[in-house]
Design a protein that fits this description.
Length: 415
């Protein structure tokens, strides 16, 4: 593939230059068609079972995208009271929100309970806390199956060396605490990690999970977690996550379980990245191309405050170069590090990357930036967080979040 954005007509009726001119640079641009396509895919993972897919909104909580998720029939996962608040604003009813809590105060847990949202607890002390503030209540328990998966140590969220979930051998204590407070464990959930392209560990973890399920008599749902990968190396031909075969294997596994146990519960999943990563790109501008001691740099306005994944996880994002409204795909190439405008030597979007020869004022387009992109933005160096624009199904560009203003930088101060 030479240019992903051109192949899928990502920018609708515009060129990237026109978008930057209209909305400023840098700029997050989303494509409604792609995002809705992914939402439909996850909503349809288990057509033969009672199933809901929860969108994990820490990946991207733009209200416009949340409203689309609601329209496409997805439920949502919240990771904080703030996410519950935003989901309510987007129109989600309480029973379509699941609060996957982790090390929270009583106040936060009460916030979720008062909002009528089902809570998952992550440890025995948090289960005790739940019991104290909501005796007789219903809840879910996050289990850690002892196996994990993911693209980087920092995103493996189950297994023997992570902070998440309750270890399987502690299930008897879970039951004891539940009894003490007359709690009803109506759900169990897990999330083994983020960004796997091979679904084998996910299916393995589900097999463990189905065994743990036998310890709980009142189960109404089981949530297997998210983590489905996105092909971040698509320009080199990396293929999509094999959803079709995954669906077939999972369907069989769960049908067999239902037959064997005679049980029927609601199955849930909580993907995030898979839904929004490919439907978002980050545009910026090359302001300076230079060579320092043999290394070539493309200096852009795409700082680590705008996209932190490369710095935080050593993540790879494909980069395309646009000039005169078209992607540059032919001609000479060179090796560059694409860097931002933040005062940190680690402020590198793409390291030692082969790119077409870059000129000043070229547009730099970072692919697969729709997940963990804007949601991890900061004002580091007192930089302004960028605007977000949606290319809608008609190809029109709609501003869906304005860029910060300088006044936003001092809003919290009593000056
Ligand atoms: C982050 C997270 C997800 C989503 O992970 P993706 O890799 O983006 O699919 C799902 N569940 C929980 C509990 C999470 O923390």
């Amino acid at each position: 593939m030479e240019s992903y954005t051109q192949d899928v007509q990502f920018f609708g009726n515009y060129t990237p230059e026109e978008l930057l001119k209209k909305f400023g640079s840098p700029l997050y641009v989303y494509n409604e068609k792609i995002i809705r396509r992914q939402m439909k895919r996850v909503a349809g993972i288990l057509p033969n079972h009672r199933f809901t897919s929860n969108f994990s909104i820490k990946t991207n909580s733009n209200l416009t995208i949340l409203k689309m998720a609601n329209e496409e029939g997805l439920n949502c996962d919240a990771m904080s009271p703030g996410e519950i608040f935003v989901l309510k604003k987007a129109g989600f009813p309480s029973d379509h929100i699941f609060y996957v809590s982790n090390n929270v105060s009583e106040e936060e847990m009460k916030y979720a309970l008062d909002a009528g949202v089902v809570v998952s607890v992550d440890s025995l002390p948090q289960l005790e806390m739940f019991g104290r503030i909501c005796p007789g209540g219903k809840l879910s328990v996050r289990l850690n199956p002892g196996v994990g998966a993911g693209h980087h140590e920092k995103v493996v969220t189950a297994g023997k060396k992570t902070k998440f979930g309750i270890a399987a051998q502690d299930i008897p204590q879970v039951l004891e605490i539940a009894k003490k407070y007359d709690l009803h464990i109506i759900g169990i959930n897990q999330h083994i990690g983020s960004l796997f392209m091979d679904y084998t560990p996910y299916l393995e973890a589900i097999k463990h999970f189905l065994i743990y399920a036998e310890s709980f008599d009142e189960l109404e749902f089981m949530d297997f977690g998210g983590g489905f990968g996105t092909p971040y190396h698509k320009l080199a031909g990396e293929q999509e996550f094999d959803m079709e075969n995954f669906k077939v294997e999972l369907d069989k596994l769960l049908s067999d379980w239902k037959k064997e146990t005679g049980k029927d519960v609601l199955f849930k999943m909580e993907p995030g990245r898979y839904i929004v990563a490919e439907g978002g790109v980050l545009l910026g501008q090359a302001y300076s191309v230079k060579e320092n001691y043999g290394h070539k740099y493309v200096g852009t306005d795409i700082g680590m405050n705008v996209l932190i994944r490369p710095e935080l996880y050593d993540s790879w994002h494909d980069v395309e170069i646009y000039r005169d409204g078209k992607p540059v795909v032919d001609g000479p190439k060179d090796i560059y590090s694409v860097v931002g405008n933040i005062c940190e030597s680690g402020d590198i979007v793409a390291k030692d990357r082969e790119l077409p020869v870059v000129k000043e004022n070229d547009v730099v387009c970072v692919l697969d930036a729709g997940a963990y992109g804007y949601s991890m933005c900061s004002n580091y160096n007192n930089r302004l967080r960028p605007a977000e624009v949606m290319i809608n199904n008609q190809g029109e560009a709609v501003l869906i979040r304005r860029r910060d203003t300088y006044e936003d930088l001092v809003r919290g101060f009593e000056v």
